[in-house]
Amino acid sequence: MKKLPINLLYILLCTVFILSCNKQDEEYGIPNIYMPQAVNISGGINANYPVPSGTDSSNYNYILDKEKNKVNVILGVARSGMQAGSAFTVNIVTNTDTVNYLVTGGVMGANSMLMPASMYTLPSSVDVAAGQRGETFDLSLDINELKKPEYAGKKLVLAVSIKSTGKYTVAAASATTIVTVDVDALVIGPAVDVTSSYLKNTGQPFIAAAMSSGGRWGTLADWTANTAAKSHGGFGGFASDAGGTMNMESGWGSPRIYNGKIYQSVTLPAGTYTFDASSMDWQGTKDPAYIIAAPKMDTIPDYSNVTGNTAIYATPFTAPKITFELDEPTQVTFGFVVNYVQDEQGFKILSIKLYNYPKHL
Prior knowledge:
- By secondary structure, this protein is mostly beta strands.
- It has helices at residues 6-24, 96-104, 143-146, 183-187, 195-198; strands at 32-34, 48-51, 62-65, 70-79, 88-94, 112-114, 120-121, 125-128, 134-142, 155-164, 169-170, 176-182, 192-193, 208-211, 217-220, 224-225, 237-239, 245-250, 257-268, 271-283, 290-295, 313-316, 321-326, 330-340, 345-356.
- It contains five helices and 25 strands.
- The strands form four sheets. Strands 13, 14, 15, 17, 18, 20, 23 and 25 form an eight-stranded antiparallel β-sheet that branches. Strands 1, 3, 4, 7, 9 and 11 form a six-stranded mixed β-sheet that branches.
């Protein structure tokens, strides 16, 4: 017989060794079971699992089930170790004491609260088949519940845990996932700034079309101001303060402003929007003053027709954001209306923004 080359002999010996090891089916590493979501966001620093996470539909950590009107948050169980091992089952439980401790202790933030039981469903257990390292399961959220007004602006927190049924030991440090649902981010979605696509002369600075001889007061370009708003010798709506602001101001030698209005009309596609006038240099209104979004109108209502008017969206200057929906392309008039009876009051807006939410439940 011919002698085998030394390299070929080495390869054959290694192959025999590897095959013999595989036959032994030995376990490598520690065969514990755990929740990947408890560690894969923070890298093990904490068990927080924010929802929504991800940047597009390929990596969101939830799946939208429109037919059943559910948001299914993706959770899971996995087993460590080199070999996949035998089948096993874990029980799924929630821990309200943990959440209450985190919320009342201020760890989760002032706007956090325990997720109500009426909002979600979870499986009682999850089976992992033999030869599989893990399995996913859903925390299913009811969309109608999420949209209830009492949850707007809230972060709903739920502690979801796994418990062993005896086959493998649960890794205690990664047995619980703190699911934190940002209701506004999930229901409304990430905001997209579309101000420059639709509105003109939106600030920082605002631009005047004409100025008074004194050089401080002016009339805004691209906006309409009624006679009452032009309270500084026929000029108004603009002040040179802070480089150029949208302004209405009475007192300090200027007359009172009765039913003063500033507005601009645009046509918007169907969608969800927020008109944001919160960037202010000064907010000194004493009498109620309103920020308006008026669909299907080419002006805004008089001051006396704002309260109780279901055809418009209105908010006081103390809460200077309006969120609204359009079912079809619609002309919308945005504006501001005041009725300054008390002396020495007004506002100076630095800029306004219009946001759209293309991802919206």
